[in-house]
């Protein structure tokens, strides 16, 4: 019987909701939670034979035959740290690369293969924007810089206000040792003046500020496109970044994307070699759709809960019937 393989972690809510559907549909699957690899009881063996030019995998005496794998869902595998343990860096590195060896020798339908989804596209906004532009999606003018003169000139050329964000979402620690997220901010030219020292510490993304009518969170699975309106301008809290969540005041609703735009979105997904993505767009006051980024492992649970869109079920069906659902089999070679 064909199996679906999950390489993930215990707490990923998207995987939890998808496997619940697989249980309902009586589809057999194997779930590898990579945090468990570090337990003394966990055993992994990867075997390569010169005769068969094939790999066989065994995890805790459960054999995983590549020929039996229908599709693979790779979502946010996490590796336990070894603080205070002897040779912790060595142990962590060996497990990390054992997992990498597994993923790069298993030919199947991937959602998504880490070669592209993680290594190439994750936090690589400029590359995404360039490809989005080539398929006909509108994008904001963008620079990455820590040069105060370039930043000020860019801001002046774009109406004296720009959107600033980190290249990678990272938490800082405040005076109370609590994590503090860094969100997108609208910054004026005047606010940049005199901040040479702080701005030169590290590069950041500065973009043309796009006025918003509404924002969209678009979840793509194969050729299925689910769009949700986020009325972020209804709250001062979410005006510049809806990830500051204000569910009481910010309406979420199903959105019908014009065929021309959805075709371009799917074309971009193929160019990025993604079978799944959580995409962020803005609809400006003129009604134009503006691409911001796509997250290869983005979450969608709150969208599904609020709108009732059948995202988890579609995800499960796509893993069971990948070709019928538009998922491509990308070679890792």
Automatic annotation (TrEMBL):
Biological process (GO), any one: SOS response
ATP-grasp domain sequence ranges: 129-320
Gene3D superfamilies in the cross-refs: ATP-grasp fold, B domain
One GO MF term attached to the UniProt entry: ATP binding
Keywords: ATP-binding, Nucleotide-binding
GO CC field: cytoplasm
One Pfam match: RimK
Family matches, as InterPro entries: ATP-grasp, ATP-grasp_RimK-type
UniProt-listed PANTHER family: BETA-CITRYLGLUTAMATE SYNTHASE B-RELATED (PTHR21621:SF0), RIBOSOMAL PROTEIN S6 MODIFICATION PROTEIN (PTHR21621)
Protein name in UniProt: Glutathione synthase/RimK-type ligase-like ATP-grasp enzyme
